Amino acid sequence: MDAPLIALVAGEASGDILGAGLIEALRARYPDARFFGVGGERMIAAGFETLFPMEKLSVMGITEVLSHLPELFRLRRQLVDALLEKRPAVVITIDSPDFTLGVAKRAHAAGLRTVHYVSPSVWAWRQGRVKGIRRDVDLMLTLFPFEALFYEEHGVPVAFVGHPLADMIDLDVDTAAARDELSLAGDGQWLAVLPGSRGGEVSQLMPPFLDAMVRLHRDNPALRFVIPAANPARREQIELALGAAPALPVTVVDGHSRTVMAAADVVLMASGTATLEGLLLKKPMVVGYRVGAVTYAIVSRLVKSEFVALPNLLCRKAMVPELIQDQLSGEAAAREVNRWLHEPRRVAALREDFTRVHEALRGGASVKAAAAVAGLLEGQR
């Protein structure tokens, strides 16, 4: 199989990062391979042909998704039709399980081999989904070891590959260099504020995060704030919120969220993949999570996991504060940030635990994922 046609489907920025790394690792094995499907800028830069902009799939929350359902169904039909027409050697769906596993189901039913990269949180909620995964997915690639154990117990072919971010991020973080790169003052304390990359996230999280910033500035006028804006729309949303608040020493940066976190002493952030980056950067953090009331009422009844934030899941203990739904307020967020700023021993212990997790997740995730896919393609599994 010298020049396989390989389909990949990613639905958000984190999947775009994983997809780009996997494309590069697969091309090292198959130099003449061709790649198509749905992906973002990084995948396109790696030589990928996307059928439509990946951003069309980025929707947050149950009620938020409902208004976009007709468009999402139309896009899925368009994508599946292309897969059935081109008949790729393998269809690799990446994260975004509510959309991508539906694609995998249809592709697998049509006789195409399927791989899903990044396990949905079936170990935490809606565990019945594993039956559909066992039926529709020929190989599951997991980022974390505890996920692979779950799939082994449920008879799903699985490979633990680690996380590419663990290879991309150095074990030792140069905070001073990150501040220089962003032209931030090298002295004093900085709080990074990450209210999310989606409009829905920012609208839910920016008000309590901003309230926390006002409270923190009142108690510590020397503390400065830096906020990365994921795109121009998010920057406009963030600046509109800041304009309605008292003057604060805030720097808004276009993109560069990882560098922003590296430059900070503490991070106040939305729950999600970015919390893993915070862990790998060894940063104390406070994690906020808030969605629409209907979405939360449904999800909260289904969740079986003790934790939401990845650092807590990976460390198997409450390493960072989680402020969920009604627990999230400016007062609570400010209190938890202040604890990190004033408890250096607690910060040092956190960094030791985070370093151990970082070391466990390193080891060439993209290369391991490509090897597992190649094994499926060549009949070795």
From TrEMBL:
GO BP annotations, alphabetical order: lipid A biosynthetic process
EC number from the UniProt entry: 2.4.1.182
Pathway: Bacterial outer membrane biogenesis; LPS lipid A biosynthesis
Keyword vocabulary terms for this entry: Glycosyltransferase, Lipid A biosynthesis, Lipid biosynthesis, Lipid metabolism, Transferase
Swiss-Prot/TrEMBL catalytic activity: a lipid X + a UDP-2-N,3-O-bis[(3R)-3-hydroxyacyl]-alpha-D-glucosamine = a lipid A disaccharide + UDP + H(+)
One annotated GO molecular function: lipid-A-disaccharide synthase activity
UniProt entry tagged with the keyword Nucleus: no
GO cellular component, as recorded: membrane
InterPro entries: Glyco_trans_19
Superkingdom field: Bacteria
Family of the protein in this entry: Belongs to the LpxB family.
HAMAP family cross-referenced by the UniProt entry: LpxB
Protein name as annotated: Lipid-A-disaccharide synthase
Source species: Alcanivorax dieselolei (strain DSM 16502 / CGMCC 1.3690 / MCCC 1A00001 / B-5) (Alloalcanivorax dieselolei)
Gene of this entry: lpxB
